[in-house]
Every structure is written in C-alpha cells, then in structure tokens.
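User: Could you go from structure to sequence for me? I need the amino acid at each position, not a summary. Structure tokens:
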C-alpha cells in the first residue's frame, strides 16, 4: 500500500478540486501551485510531474476501492448482503467526496498514458471480478438467481452504480445520492434474488 505524506495528500486533494472545477485539462502545475499558494518548484519536491500526481490520485482511489471490497467480502451473510454493502459504500464514498466523480469518470482523459489507463482498468477489473465472484457464490448458495451469468450480473450491479453516480454528477448533484442508492439497490436486489 502506498503511503502519502500529509503534504502529498494536500496536493492530491487540490488536484482533484481543480479537475472537478475545470476538467482534467485544468490540472497544470501552475494552476496547482496557485491553488495551494506555493511555488511550482515546491510542488516538484513532492511530485516529479503532473503524471505522478495523477497516478498517485488514482492509486489512492484504488486503495480505497480495495478496502471497500475487502470489507464487503469479510461480511458474514449472503452474497446479496455483500453486494448491498459494496453498492451502498461506493455510492456513500461519492456522496462524501463528490469531487472524486470528476476523476473517476474521466477515464477517457487517461487513455493518452498507458500507466493511467492501466491503473483505471485495474480498479474496474478488481470490482468486476469481486462482484462476479460474489454473484457466483450466491448462485451456488441458491440466494441469487442462476439464469443470469455471473459476469453479466456484475455488469448490471456496477453499471447501475456508475450510471446513477454519473447522472448525479451531471445534474450538478441535484438529487440525494444516498437515498437514490437505497432505492436502486432495492430494484437490483429484486432482479438478482432467487425467489
């Protein structure tokens, strides 16, 4: 696990805010130093480049996502309970940190650098494989319907989460994401449950 200094955390948070305000193209070392009230050379003492900041930002998000997935997997109970935890915890993280949506859903902007694209892809793959495994186990236990391939079930759960959060962001956060998450989860539960 990557450990960041307090100052590196501040720089990452400021970079996220800049992306939130003006998109990825707004993140420059000049804008970042102005946002933090420090000189550009001071930034380079903590990160060697804008790319290093972006990689650290994505790494931090990846660590948080891994922690959420691991906590859900450690829960006693059915696959549906684990899926609910994943769904609601991830949406809760976006509710608490709405500016992160600008970074997490900007993967098109990361395609120009293979290291950024690989990091984003690894986060997506980890979530997909974890959710797919949970669904497979739930199918074996008889609590999740078995007429849907587990990989497709994972796409349904994660795609619903992604679309819901993206709608929230594009609406300028006009609806209560936590409440919407609960309602969407009820529908997903009804779709997945073996009745």
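Assistant: Here is the amino acid at each position, in order:
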């Amino acid at each position: 696990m990557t450990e960041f200094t307090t100052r590196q955390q501040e720089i990452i948070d400021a970079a996220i805010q800049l992306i939130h305000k003006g998109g990825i193209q707004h993140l420059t070392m000049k804008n970042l130093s102005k946002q933090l009230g420090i000189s550009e050379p001071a930034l380079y003492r903590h990160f060697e480049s804008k790319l290093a900041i972006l990689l650290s930002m994505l790494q931090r998000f990846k660590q948080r996502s891994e922690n959420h997935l691991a906590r859900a997997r450690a829960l006693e109970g059915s696959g549906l309970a684990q899926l609910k935890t994943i769904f609601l915890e991830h949406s809760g993280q976006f509710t608490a940190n709405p500016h992160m949506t600008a970074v997490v859903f900007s993967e098109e902007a990361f395609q120009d650098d293979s290291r950024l694209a690989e990091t984003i892809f690894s986060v997506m793959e980890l979530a997909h494989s974890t959710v797919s495994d949970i669904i497979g186990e739930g199918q074996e236990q008889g609590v999740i319907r078995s007429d849907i391939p587990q990989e497709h079930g994972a796409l349904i759960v994660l795609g619903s989460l992604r679309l819901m959060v993206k709608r929230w962001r594009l609406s300028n956060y006009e609806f209560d994401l936590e409440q919407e998450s609960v309602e969407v989860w009820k529908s997903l539960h009804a779709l997945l449950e073996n009745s």
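One structural detail worth keeping in mind: The domain at 60-192 is CATH 1.10.357.10 (Tetracycline Repressor; domain 2).
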